[in-house]
Design a protein that fits this description.
400 residues, alpha/beta, seven-stranded mixed beta sheet, 17 strands, globular
Length: 400
């Protein structure tokens, strides 16, 4: 059958929930076109005309998902002498997206675009087959009120002065191609003069944004560090709380067992490795070091509750290239998540939070054939994931 790939692979016992519909330790995965057509016992007869790929000794798992990226962050922000235009931002997005696909990230959620919507344009070009890249879900520029700690919001923020303007910004973002709503709910952790504990949105504003999103059959994600703001976002019905650096145990208890809300953590930016790669000034480093231990203490408590935890990064591209798997390392080394939990965060959990778990996130018949193969068993030793995949397939196409 032309276009089929019949791959014999190992499926680690502890990640069978990432291979829905089978309890097989090993299996043959049959791909036809963009989709997984069948999952069969290992050693099944190869269909006539199919190309066979031997994955002996490897674990085949769903393609990875990064649920918090800004694709126009293709260069370290505002380097001296750099020129930033609408056209150059588009090329930054292409470079960033291609890099992510090359390391096994087959789906990306862009959580704050340039004002000219280059990430949305790239998504459309990928979907039409004009260029190659990962699957993209895009928010458009994020929505926020003016705040001195962020200045004018740069080129990634749609600023509003009242609720009516906020509604207008959300609707025009959707008209320009936004897949979901991204709000800015607290101050920033990094920006000089910004207070991460400061809440920026009223309850009425958040609930209104949620109402508008639900009317359009989508959801709200919110940048949120502070304790009070995290609780406010949960109470107001947002889908994902991004960062959640100082989330309280009281809020975690409220979230326990809920499937309509989750957390997209971005913790590696606090690591010494990425702080060095990003080249922060001494003032910024002092500010980060002063809060890092408290952030880790708050986030470590998440493991005690049944909460959907996703994985994001929020890096500039040079940082990603310097440490492509730092988010995996930090979750194991500094936060103590189990190997299986980390794998789920980067696959099925992200898919659920993005409302795309009907098409990606697990190896299942009928889903997109977005797959990676890694040497060894990451469910027993997550350090397997620190190395780049030996095989990457997106939509049935072998990437490398």
């Amino acid at each position: 059958v032309d276009g089929q790939i019949f791959g014999t692979c190992g499926i680690a016992h502890d990640i069978t929930e990432l291979t829905e519909g089978t309890d097989l330790l090993t299996a043959d995965i049959l791909i036809e076109g963009e989709y997984i057509k069948d999952i069969l016992p290992a050693g099944s007869k190869t269909p006539e005309g199919a190309k066979e790929m031997d994955m002996d000794g490897k674990t085949v798992m769903p393609g990875l998902i990064d649920a918090h990226v800004h694709l126009f962050f293709g260069r370290t922000n505002q380097l001296p002498g750099e020129v930033y235009t609408a056209a150059s931002r588009a090329f930054d997005c292409i470079e960033y997206a291609n890099y992510l696909l090359s390391i096994g990230i087959t789906t990306v959620r862009d959580c704050g675009d340039d004002e000219n919507y280059p990430a949305s344009a790239l998504r459309d070009a990928i979907n039409k087959g004009k260029v190659k890249g990962p699957r993209l879900q895009c928010s458009g520029p994020l929505i926020m009120p003016p705040y001195q700690g962020v200045g004018t919001g740069g080129n990634m923020c749609n600023l509003y002065g009242n609720k009516e303007e906020m509604i207008s910004k959300i609707r025009y973002n959707e008209l320009a191609g936004a897949d979901f709503v991204k709000l800015y709910g607290s101050g920033s952790m990094i920006m000089p003069g910004s207070n991460p504990h400061l809440s920026l949105l009223t309850e009425e504003e958040v609930r209104t944004a949620v109402e508008i999103a639900e009317m359009r059959d989508t959801y709200v994600a919110v940048h949120c560090h502070g304790t009070k703001a995290c609780d406010q976002m949960f109470e107001c019905g947002v889908r994902t709380i991004e960062h959640a650096s100082f989330i309280s145990e009281e809020t975690l208890k409220k979230m326990d067992g809920r499937k309509d809300v989750g957390l997209v953590l971005t913790q590696a930016f606090l690591s010494d490795e990425l702080l060095a790669a990003d080249g922060y000034d001494e003032e910024s480093l002092k500010r980060i070091y002063a809060v890092r231990e408290k952030v880790h203490a708050c986030v470590k408590k998440i493991k005690d509750y049944d909460i959907i935890v996703g994985m994001g990064t929020d890096y500039f591209l040079p940082s990603y290239k310097a440490e492509p798997r730092m988010e995996f390392k930090v979750r194991k080394r500094d936060l103590g998540f189990s190997d299986l939990d980390i794998l789920k965060q980067a696959t099925i959990n992200n898919a659920k939070l993005m409302r795309w778990d009907d098409r990606i996130g697990t190896v299942k018949v009928g889903k997109f054939a977005d797959l990676i193969a890694v040497k060894g068993n990451p469910a027993e030793d997550i350090s397997v994931m620190y190395e780049l995949p030996e095989l990457i397939i997106k939509g049935g196409e072998v990437i490398n």
